Amino acid sequence: MTDVAELDLPAFDHTDGSLRGADFHAAMRAVSGEGWLAQGPFGYITLDRDAGEFFLRSRDAIFPGMKIAEIFGVADGPLHEEMVRNILHINGQDHARLRGLVNPSLTPRAVERYRPAMQRFLAELLDDARSEGASEAELDFVAAFAKPYPSRVIASVMGAPLTDAPRLHRWSNWIQRQFDAIAMAGEREGIEAAVAEFYEYAADLVAARRREPGDDIVSLLVQAEEQGDRLSDVECVNLVFNILVGGVDTTQAQLAHAVRLLSEHPDQWAALRADPSLAGPAVEESLRYEPITPFTARILTADVTYRDVTFPRDTIVMVCAFTGNRDLPAGDGDTFDITAGHDAARPLTFGAGIHYCLGANLARLELTEALTFLAARFSRLEPAGDPEYESITGIYGLAALPLRIAF
């Protein structure tokens, strides 16, 4: 056995702010060509699929949220409460119990109830974006579709008023930054303010659904709470919190990348327009090819040995979904092809193991509905300028995506 500290590893700094778009792709190709493991600024970075899945599934590797709290001195207040109660940071029987309460409302069959609302929101956004009588337009896809669409969907899922969608988006955007060390270092005040505001909002929403239950996740959680000791009031509010944080920025970012990729590959856009059944495969290919969580952190709770290399307890391991997703058993992982059937190799974008993304089924349906809708209505889709990429250290999205479209 070899201790990981004794290995001669290539260095890779995933916190480098210049790593975006094509530069990020080139850097990842270069470092992954040197082996399955790299030295990062906080620990080690896995670069192939098998290693990524191993550490994501290991019972001795947990999400390092409380280590982040320790590093940045988050010892009390609403942000500390949220970190302690976040389902990502809860393990063992409590995690299984909480997940079991939410899972039934997020199965593939259960999320089908939101399909009509998704279609309605997309139609409304198209009406807003299209001038009367216009046959073509230039627009920022992020502002016109990718940003407002998921927040309206999550409002419906939570049983919140649609007029609150912009506030839900703003809170999600800020609260997600707690997982980005750079943002925590420079924007902590804004993160803490958003957490405090949403806690107050979520408590009011739970109280409203207790008075008037509906066909939504919050009502389901309230019912579980009222059945006895299965769910406490604090746990109920924090699960509502988790649903918001995990369900807005992530879908916005992945939808923007999916449409960017299709606009940059006109043959793929033509294939989707010709065969709407390719919308699902197009979603899977965008999840694989440009994951909006390129790096997922784990911290080891015990010594772990993998491939005859020992990783000591408290080691931080960053799982690179970008390179892991492109490490395919067959086919060209660096080619974007919605007809290739790459989804047979499940992407690491939603994670793996017990902390696999709770909202993956909802996100997949949102994305599939969006691509189906757009392909049926945009006869032409092409770039109208350079996309504005955001940082790879948090949710890797686009701040702007200028497109030229024809209706």
Task: Briefly say what this structure is.
By secondary structure, the protein is of the alpha+beta class. It has helices at residues 21-32, 49-57, 65-71, 77-85, 92-102, 115-129, 141-146, 148-158, 165-175, 181-186, 188-211, 217-226, 233-247, 249-264, 266-274, 279-289, 321-326, 360-377; strands spanning 2-3, 37-39, 44-46, 61-62, 136-140, 295-300, 304-306, 309-311, 316-320, 380-383, 388-389, 398-400, 402-406.
What does this structure look like?
This protein has a single domain, classed as Cytochrome P450 (Cytochrome p450), CATH 1.10.630. The chain has 18 helices and 13 strands. The protein has helices at residues 21-32, 49-57, 65-71, 77-85, 92-102, 115-129, 141-146, 148-158, 165-175, 181-186, 188-211, 217-226, 233-247, 249-264, 266-274, 279-289, 321-326, 360-377, and strands at residues 2-3, 37-39, 44-46, 61-62, 136-140, 295-300, 304-306, 309-311, 316-320, 380-383, 388-389, 398-400, 402-406. A hairpin with a 4-residue loop joins strand 2 (37-39) and strand 3 (44-46). The longest helix is centred in the middle third of the chain and has 24 residues, at 188-211. The radius of gyration is 21 Å and the shape is globular. The chain starts with a strand and ends with a strand. The model has no long low-confidence stretch (mean pLDDT 90).
Estimate nothing, just give the exact number of structural domains. 1
Overall geometric form? globular
* CATH superfamily label: Cytochrome P450
**Whole-angstrom Rg:** 21 Å
CATH architecture level-2 label? Orthogonal Bundle
CATH level 1 class label? Mainly Alpha
Major sheet: arrangement of strands: 2-3-9-6-4
Helix content: 40-55%
Number of contiguous helices? 18
Query: For the residues shown, what is the average pLDDT?
Result: 90
Largest sheet: 5 strands, mixed
